[in-house]
């Protein structure tokens, strides 16, 4: 087979130049190999890439050998060659030229995909530097900046504006955006505000005002009573600029709102006298060391106004005596042998008379009707009747007795048990003379029993009774001492009995051997120190910081309340009575119904 | 004279300054008593917060300084200050927060700041460790000169392989056309490139040793030598790119996160005073 090969090269302008040669071979071998007649020196060509042969019918055909051959765009393993056909052998384009004389086949060969320059090739495969990748500091920075600012500034501010316009802000997963501004959980007292930030933070960029607190805390007390000009001046001097939020910082967890650190108190109280010489409060720095003995607040019977109450320090033995106006020996009542009761023997316990109040903090008032009268009956003629004299004014007692005996003397109904001669007989009508005699008897009898009640039994059993002029009217012949039962002995402290109820009462209150009602059974500071440490933690002891017992806002915002009664723990009735200065203004008999805890 | 690192700049001038700040801040924190305890809103808390915020802004300004070529003071001094004062921020900010954390924008700012600082520590580590490794790896060369050498080898190897078997020729051609050096983020950072065409070619030539004789065997021996040299050059070029990438990549976190920190800082400050 004789083949004409036209090798086409191009100059820089792309103009072709052709070099022709004619090769004769049985088979036209195409390849990189030295033995190939169509020698294509390129690494992309196989040693023997393809072969072109002439068939018996004179038609030439190509067969792929070591490499791929594309005929008119399609890879073929073998194909018949036709004029104008375009073959791709590696990077070479081979075109079948029109038949020419003297040759069996004419082909043009051109390198259409030259190898890159080696340096270019290597450079194209080197990619160095993170900057050349998709990572971008600028892009990341903008995205991060915008994301954080939108999520944590713009959106929360929009939430806040929504709220200030009364709109409910959008929530996602139950959270509003300004939840991300929340510095910590609210105190348990404020937890119900939830995400309503504006309840306290009423104006943007303005600190929470006292007004915001006082919207709810209307009745909060000052630190001490501002009942005098001087007290007001001192208060202003100390607390003038103090904001609620100076001490009460919220967002510090359930118990974080109220300060319990010792310095709250001791900063001033450790040397209070040097700053305020007129103060009646002793210097104290530490409960276990220099806390003075307790001062009890005791009601004084028969006094009015501020004098109705005195404070007596427990070590003031001469004055530390109760004068309630009653006779009450605890030892008799608490006798282990028991007492004679209406239904037989009774062994009394503390709780029989001292029943805890609703909060368990202290005790309900002990009253005649509820706690005493079942044993201390006011029956005046127990053999004849179950009737009792009223627990009230002397005159009422006398009237009751006179009515009773007159009725007994004059009644048609027989009174078999009254056996004195001449008064009446069964079934008989009473004649006028006899009526007169009966009345005389009744009056004498009433007088006698009255005297008995006030001087020997019943009233006399519990009351201190002064006997007056024997010739005076019966109503003024006996004077019952005024009564004042102190209900809250330590109103400046808080002592929850309920939190101490694992102890027996007598472990603090030594009453079982108390013979006199003048004994005061309020435990002293030593008793508390047995279990409680102070501001400084003491090993094996319960805490005893100032705040364990004392409150801060125990002064009243209202003037006119006696400074001795500032505590919100004070029973209302007592507070009111003392404040109005009407307490015991009338004789104790004026309060006869037994509802006033302090009066009975 | 021994080379002095950025850490030793001017006899540890900024280490001393940072240590002074840290000691002063710790002392103040220990000495200062506030009725309701330490937190960001006490006078000391506000002071520490202000110091911290100013430090953050100033440290970020370094980024701007580096971009401008006309800088006040030399860049080493700025960098030394950046490192030490940045580190002191850990103490300043932690005491400002008084060790309180929560799921909020305030802690977000703190956490972002800590990540930025820790990524900065990694940056310092790379600045101290990798330049010497790079010098060791490149010796007299540069990435550019390595590329030139590889191209020379490619040309020679291609010429030699033309007369060899298709298998051998193809392996060499693949090595020339497909040996990637560097590339994407991961490609630049990874130490070993699996299925590297150059390695495959080296292995192939080694495996075919002894299958040919005479002149051909000698040529094959030459080709083996060439490809082996190329393999080493490619390895060094890749190592160089890897070191550079390691020294660069942390900045792609450090910078955007510090910008995020700036945003969180603004949100933190606005939030605190919005609901004061």
List keywords for this structure.
heterodimer; A: 600 residues; alpha+beta; 5-stranded mixed beta sheet; 17 helices; rod-shaped; disordered C terminus; B: 276 residues; mainly alpha; elongated
Order of helices and strands of chain B: HHHHHHEHHHH
**Beta-strand content of chain A:** 5-15%
* Mean pLDDT value of chain A: 81
User: How would you name the oligomeric state of the polypeptide chains in this document?
Assistant: heterodimer
> How far apart are the first and last residues' alpha carbons of chain A, in Å?
145 Å
Overall spatial form of chain A: rod-shaped
Question: Helices and strands in order, then pairings?
Answer:
The complex is a heterodimer of chains A (600) and B (276).
Chain A: E1 2-10, E2 16-24, E3 27-31, E4 38-39, E5 50-54, E6 60-64, E7 69-71, E8 74-76, E9 78-80, E10 86-89, E11 92-96, E12 105-111, H1 118-125, E13 126-127, H2 137-164, H3 210-214, H4 229-239, H5 244-247, H6 263-269, H7 272-275, E14 295-299, E15 309-313, H8 330-333, E16 339-341, E17 344-346, H9 350-353, H10 368-372, H11 394-410, H12 432-455, H13 459-462, E18 465-467, H14 474-477, E19 478-480, H15 525-529, H16 546-549, H17 572-580
Parallel strand pairs in A: 1-12, 3-4
Antiparallel strand pairs in A: 1-2, 3-5, 5-6, 6-9, 7-8, 7-10, 10-11, 11-12, 14-15, 16-17, 18-19
Chain B: H1 9-31, H2 43-67, H3 75-97, H4 105-138, H5 143-161, H6 166-178, E1 181-182, H7 185-189, H8 197-207, H9 214-249, H10 251-274
């Amino acid at each position: 087979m004789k083949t004409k090969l036209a090798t086409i090269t191009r100059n820089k302008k792309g103009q072709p130049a052709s070099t022709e040669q004619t090769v004769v071979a049985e088979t036209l071998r195409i390849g990189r190999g030295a033995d190939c007649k169509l020698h294509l020196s390129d690494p992309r060509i196989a040693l023997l890439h393809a072969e072109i042969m002439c068939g018996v019918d004179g038609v030439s055909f190509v067969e792929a050998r070591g490499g791929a051959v594309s005929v008119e765009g399609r890879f073929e393993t073998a194909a018949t060659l036709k004029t104008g056909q375009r073959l791709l052998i590696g990077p070479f384009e081979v075109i079948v030229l029109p038949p020419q004389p003297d040759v069996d086949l004419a082909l043009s060969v051109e390198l259409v995909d030259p190898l890159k320059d080696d340096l270019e090739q290597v450079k194209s495969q080197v990619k160095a530097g993170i900057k050349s990748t998709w990572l971008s500091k600028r892009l990341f920075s903008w995205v991060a900046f915008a994301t954080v600012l939108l999520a944590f500034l713009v959106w929360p501010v929009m939430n806040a504006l929504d709220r200030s316009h009364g709109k409910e802000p959008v929530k996602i997963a139950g959270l509003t955006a300004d939840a991300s501004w929340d510095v910590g959980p609210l105190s348990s007292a404020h937890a119900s505000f939830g995400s309503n930030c504006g309840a306290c933070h009423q104006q943007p960029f303005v600190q929470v005002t006292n007004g915001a607190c006082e919207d709810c805390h209307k009745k909060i007390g000052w630190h001490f009573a501002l009942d005098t000009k001087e007290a007001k001046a001192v208060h202003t001097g100390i607390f003038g600029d103090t904001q609620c939020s100076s001490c009460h910082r919220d967002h510090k967890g359930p118990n974080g709102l109220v300060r319990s650190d010792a310095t709250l108190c001791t900063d001033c109280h450790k040397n209070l006298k040097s700053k305020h010489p007129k103060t009646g409060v002793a210097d104290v720095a530490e409960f276990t060391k220099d806390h003075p003995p307790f001062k009890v607040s005791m009601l004084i019977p028969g006094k009015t106004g501020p004098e109705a109450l005195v404070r007596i320090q427990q070590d003031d033995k001469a004055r530390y005596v109760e004068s309630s106006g009653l006779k009450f020996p605890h030892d008799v009542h608490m006798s282990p042998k028991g007492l004679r009761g209406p239904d037989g023997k009774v062994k009394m316990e503390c709780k029989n008379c001292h029943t805890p109040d609703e909060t368990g903090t202290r005790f309900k008032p002990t009253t005649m009707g509820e706690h005493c009268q079942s044993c201390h009956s006011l029956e005046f003629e127990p053999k004849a009747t179950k009737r009792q004299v009223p627990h009230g004014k002397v005159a009422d007692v006398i009237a009751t007795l006179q009515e009773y005996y007159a009725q007994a003397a004059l009644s048609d109904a027989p009174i078999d048990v009254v056996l004195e001669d001449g008064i009446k007989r069964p079934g008989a009508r009473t004649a006028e003379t006899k009526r007169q005699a009966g009345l005389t008897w009744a009056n004498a009898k009433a007088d006698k029993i009255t005297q008995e009640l006030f001087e020997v039994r019943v009233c006399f059993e519990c009351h201190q009774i002064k006997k007056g002029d024997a010739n005076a009217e019966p109503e003024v012949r006996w004077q019952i001492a005024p009564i004042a039962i102190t209900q809250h002995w330590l109103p400046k402290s808080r002592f929850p009995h309920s939190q101490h109820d694992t102890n027996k009462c007598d472990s603090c209150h030594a009453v079982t051997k108390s013979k006199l009602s003048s004994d005061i059974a309020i435990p002293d500071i030593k008793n508390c120190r047995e279990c409680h440490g102070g501001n400084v933690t003491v090993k094996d002891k319960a805490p005893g910081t100032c705040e364990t017992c004392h409150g801060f806002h125990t002064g009243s915002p209202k003037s006119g309340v006696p400074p001795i009664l500032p505590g919100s723990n004070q029973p209302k009735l007592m507070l009111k009575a003392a404040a109005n200065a009407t307490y015991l203004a009338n004789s104790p008999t004026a309060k006869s119904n037994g509802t006033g805890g302090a009066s009975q | 004279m021994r080379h002095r690192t950025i850490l030793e700049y001017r006899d540890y001038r900024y280490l001393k300054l940072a240590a002074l700040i840290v000691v002063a801040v710790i002392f103040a924190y220990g000495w200062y008593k506030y009725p309701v305890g330490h937190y960001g809103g006490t006078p000391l808390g506000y002071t520490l917060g202000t110091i911290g915020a100013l430090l953050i802004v100033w440290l970020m300004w370094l980024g701007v300084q580096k971009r401008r070529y006309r800088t006040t003071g030399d860049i080493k001094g700025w960098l030394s200050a950046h490192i030490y004062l940045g580190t002191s921020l850990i103490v300043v900010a932690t005491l400002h927060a008084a060790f309180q954390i929560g799921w909020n924008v305030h802690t977000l700012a703190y956490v972002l700041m800590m990540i930025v600082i820790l990524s900065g520590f990694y940056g310092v580590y790379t600045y101290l460790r990798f330049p010497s490794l790079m010098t060791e790896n490149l010796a007299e060369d540069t990435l550019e000169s390595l590329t030139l050498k590889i191209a020379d080898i490619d040309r020679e190897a291609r010429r030699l392989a033309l007369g060899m078997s298709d298998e051998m020729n193809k392996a060499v051609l693949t090595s020339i056309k497909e040996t990637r050096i560097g590339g994407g983020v991961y490609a630049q950072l990874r130490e070993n490139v699996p299925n590297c065409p150059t390695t495959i070619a080296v292995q192939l030539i080694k495996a075919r040793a002894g299958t040919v004789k005479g002149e051909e065997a000698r040529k094959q021996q030459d080709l083996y030598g060439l490809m082996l040299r190329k393999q080493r050059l490619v390895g060094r070029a890749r190592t160089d790119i890897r070191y550079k990438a390691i020294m660069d990549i942390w900045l792609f976190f450090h910078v955007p996160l510090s910008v995020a920190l700036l945003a969180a800082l603004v949100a933190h400050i606005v939030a605190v005073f919005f609901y004061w």
